[in-house]
UniProtKB/TrEMBL annotation:
One of its GO terms (biological process) is oligosaccharide catabolic process. Keywords: Glycosidase, Hydrolase. It catalyses: Hydrolysis of (1->6)-alpha-D-glucosidic linkages in (1->6)-alpha-D-glucans and derived oligosaccharides. One of its GO terms (molecular function) is alpha-amylase activity. It comes from Lactococcus lactis subsp. cremoris. InterPro entries: GH, GH13_cat_dom, Glyco_hydro_b, O16G_dom_2. Residues 13-400 form the Glycosyl hydrolase family 13 catalytic domain. It holds the Pfam family Alpha-amylase. This is Glucan 1,6-alpha-glucosidase. PANTHER family: ALPHA-AMYLASE FAMILY MEMBER (PTHR10357), NEUTRAL AND BASIC AMINO ACID TRANSPORT PROTEIN RBAT (PTHR10357:SF179). Gene3D superfamilies: Glycosidases, Golgi alpha-mannosidase II, Oligo-1,6-glucosidase, Domain 2. Belongs to the glycosyl hydrolase 13 family. It is an enzyme of class 3 (hydrolase). Its EC number is 3.2.1.70.
Length: 533
C-alpha cells in the first residue's frame, strides 16, 4: 500500500454547535473554532472532521441540509469558513467536511420543488411511492410520509424532515458531484460521508443498506470529484464487514480511503435488537471483534479507530468508570486504541475525559432520536424509568453537551444561554485544569499522538492479540525487527498479566506495572529482542 498522509495523522471531530460560541447566542460557531485552533495544534492532531456547518433548519442538528453551498447562519459566514480552512492549514491541520447526501432537508429547494407535482423537475430526485410498505424509520415510526400536494408518499429513513434522495437519478448524482467540487475548490482535504451505505436502495424489496449500485456510485463519485487529488474520504457504514470494508477502501477499487465500522459499538446491545436494549459488554467479545478488524483488512484496506462520536455515549461513562477511575479508565481507552493500526479519531472532549450527562425527565432531552424513542416505547407500554435508563446509556445528547473549557460560567463555552445545558461536572473537568496538570488525560492523548508521529511501527506494524485473562486486552505490534507490547486491564478488578519487556513507553499509573494489574491499568512497552518472540 502506498503511504498516504491520512494514514499517519490523528483526526479530531468537531460538533460545531457544542464546541465554542464566540458571539453569545449560546450556539457554537466557526469563529469559535478558529479561536481554539492553537489548542488543537498543541494536542497534535492532523485533521478535523467538521460535523455539518451548512444551512439547515436543524431538525437533526445540521444533518438535514437545506443549502449545501452556504453556511448555517448561527455558525457564521462563508468568509468565516474560508478563514477556518486557511487558519487550520497554517497550523498543519486539514479540514474534512461532512457530506450528507443520503437525504436533504425537506426545506431544500430540490424537495420544495419536488413535492409540487409528480411532473416537477426534481420530483425524481427523491423516492416516491403511491402506497407505503412497512419500512421503519431509524428515528422511529413509518419511513413513509404522505405529501398532500404531490399526492404520494416519500421515503425518509431518518426524520420526516429528511427525505431520502434517489441516487438512481443521474442528474441528481451530477448535482451532488458539482457541490462536492465546489467544496474541493475551497481547499478542503476530504469528506466524511454520512450513512453512505444507504444511498443505493430498493425500498420495495426492503433492501436499504449495501444496495446493488452502491459501489458503482462511489466509483463514479470518486472519478467525478476527489479521485487523483490526494484527498481523504471516510464512509459511515453501519453494515460493513471486513470483506465489505475492503471493497470500499482497497486503493485498487478507487472508492474511499477508509470506513467507520460499528461492530464493536453494538456489543452492548441485546443481539438482534436495538441500541436501546441494553446488555453488559463482554470483554472477550470486544477483543475478538477488534482483532478481526485489525488483522483482516491486511494490505487491501485501511481501518478507522474510534470509541466516540456525536451519536455515541462517552466511552469513559459507557465502558469505563466515570467516577472513581475516570482518569485511569479514560487513559486506558486512549492507550488501547491509539496503538492500533488505522487512523484514530478523537471526539471533542474525549481528550479531557468528558462524561455522559444523565437526565431524569424527557423534558431535558434535545435530540430528536431520543424524543421519538421515548414516545414510541411509552406507547408500547415500557415504563418511563426503563426508557430513561436506555436514553441515559445511549442517548446522543450525552456527547453533545458543550465543551468544558474552564470553570467559568457555562464552562467558558458561551457568555449567553447554552442551547444544551453544560454538564455540571465542568468545575472539575475542563480544558484549563487539564492543561495545568501534567498527569492529565490531555497529556496522555498528546503523547500518544506524538508517538504515532515518531514511530512507523504504530502505523505499519503487524498486530497480534495475546492470550490473557478475559478482562486483559493485550496485543503486540511488530515492525522491522522491533516489537511493542500494549496491555490494558479492561476492568476495575485486579487482573494478572505476566509479560516481560525492556522499556516502558507510556503508562497510566505513576510507577512500574507489576504482575497484578490495578483497575484500568494500561501501558505500552518495547519488548526485548529475544523475549516472547
Ligand atoms: C448519521 C449521523 O452521524 C447522525 O448524526 C444523523 O442523525 C444521521 N446520520 C442522519 O443524517
Amino acid at each position: 500500500m502506498k503511504q498516504k498522509w491520512w494514514q499517519e495523522i490523528v483526526m479530531y471531530q468537531i460538533y460545531p454547535r457544542s464546541f465554542q460560541d464566540s458571539n453569545g447566542d449560546g450556539i457554537g460557531d466557526i469563529p469559535g473554532i478558529i479561536s481554539r485552533l492553537d489548542y488543537l495544534q498543541k494536542l497534535g492532531i492532523g485533521g478535523i472532521w467538521l460535523s455539518p456547518v451548512y444551512q439547515s433548519p436543524n431538525d437533526d442538528n445540521g444533518y438535514d441540509i437545506s443549502d449545501y453551498e452556504s453556511i448555517m447562519t448561527e455558525f457564521g459566514t462563508m468568509a468565516d469558513m474560508e478563514r477556518l480552512i486557511s487558519e487550520a492549514d497554517k497550523r498543519g491541520i486539514k479540514i474534512i467536511m461532512d457530506l450528507v447526501v443520503n437525504h436533504t432537508s425537506d426545506e431544500h429547494p430540490w424537495f420544495v420543488e419536488a413535492r409540487q407535482s409528480k411532473n416537477s423537475k426534481t420530483h425524481d430526485y427523491y423516492v416516491w411511492r403511491d402506497e407505503p410498505n412497512d419500512i421503519e424509520s431509524i428515528f422511529s415510526g413509518s419511513a413513509w410520509q404522505f405529501d398532500e400536494t404531490a399526492g404520494q408518499y416519500y421515503l425518509h429513513l431518518f426524520s420526516k424532515k429528511q427525505p431520502d434522495l434517489n441516487w438512481e437519478n443521474e442528474k441528481l448524482r451530477q448535482a451532488i458531484y458539482d457541490m462536492m467540487n465546489f467544496w474541493i475548490g475551497k481547499g478542503i482535504s476530504g469528506f466524511r460521508m454520512d450513512v453512505i451505505d444507504l444511498i443505493s436502495k430498493l425500498p420495495d424489496q426492503k433492501i436499504l443498506g449495501n444496495g446493488p449500485h452502491l459501489h458503482d456510485y462511489l466509483k463514479e463519485m470518486n472519478q467525478a470529484t476527489f479521485g487523483g487529488k490526494d484527498l481523504m474520504t471516510v464512509g459511515e457504514t453501519w453494515g460493513a464487514t471486513p470483506e465489505i470494508a475492503k471493497q470500499y477502501s482497497n486503493p485498487a477499487n478507487n472508492e474511499l480511503s477508509m470506513v467507520f465500522q460499528f461492530e464493536h459499538i453494538a456489543l452492548d446491545e441485546v443481539l438482534g435488537q436495538t441500541k436501546w436494549d441494553l446488555r453488559d459488554l463482554n470483554v472477550p467479545e470486544l477483543k475478538q471483534v477488534l482483532t478481526k478488524w485489525q488483522t483482516e483488512l491486511g494490505n487491501e484496506g485501511w481501518n478507522s479507530l474510534f470509541w466516540n462520536n456525536h451519536d455515541l455515549p462517552r466511552i469513559v461513562s459507557r465502558w469505563g468508570n466515570d467516577m472513581t477511575y475516570r482518569v485511569e479508565s479514560a487513559k486506558m481507552f486512549a492507550i488501547l486504541l491509539h496503538l492500533m493500526k488505522g487512523t484514530p479519531y478523537i471526539y471533542q472532549g474525549e481528550e479531557i475525559g468528558m462524561t455522559n450527562k444523565p437526565i431524569s425527565d424527557v423534558s431535558e432531552i434535545d435530540d430528536i432520536e431520543s424524543i421519538n424513542i421515548y414516545n414510541e416505547r411509552l406507547a408500547q407500554g415500557y415504563s418511563k424509568e426503563e426508557i430513561i435508563r436506555s436514553i441515559n446509556a445511549k442517548g446522543r445528547d450525552n456527547a453533545r453537551t458543550p465543551i468544558q473549557w474552564s470553570a467559568d460560567d457555562n464552562a467558558g463555552f458561551t457568555s449567553g444561554r447554552s442551547w444544551l445545558s453544560v454538564n455540571p461536572n465542568y468545575k472539575v473537568i475542563n480544558v484549563e485544569e487539564a492543561l495545568k496538570d501534567k498527569n492529565s488525560i490531555f497529556y496522555t492523548y498528546q503523547k500518544l499522538i506524538q508517538l504515532r508521529k515518531d514511530n512507523p511501527l504504530i502505523i505499519w506494524g503487524d498486530y497480534e492479540l495475546l492470550d490473557t485473562a478475559d478482562n486483559i486486552f493485550a496485543y503486540t505490534r511488530s515492525y522491522q525487527g522491533e516489537k511493542w507490547l500494549v496491555v490494558a486491564n479492561f476492568s476495575e478488578e485486579e487482573n494478572e498479566f505476566e509479560g516481560v519487556f525492556r522499556e516502558l513507553i507510556t503508562h497510566n499509573y505513576p510507577d512500574k506495572p507489576q504482575k497484578v494489574l490495578r483497575p484500568y491499568e494500561a501501558f505500552v512497552a518495547k519488548m526485548g529482542d529475544d523475549e516472547n518472540e
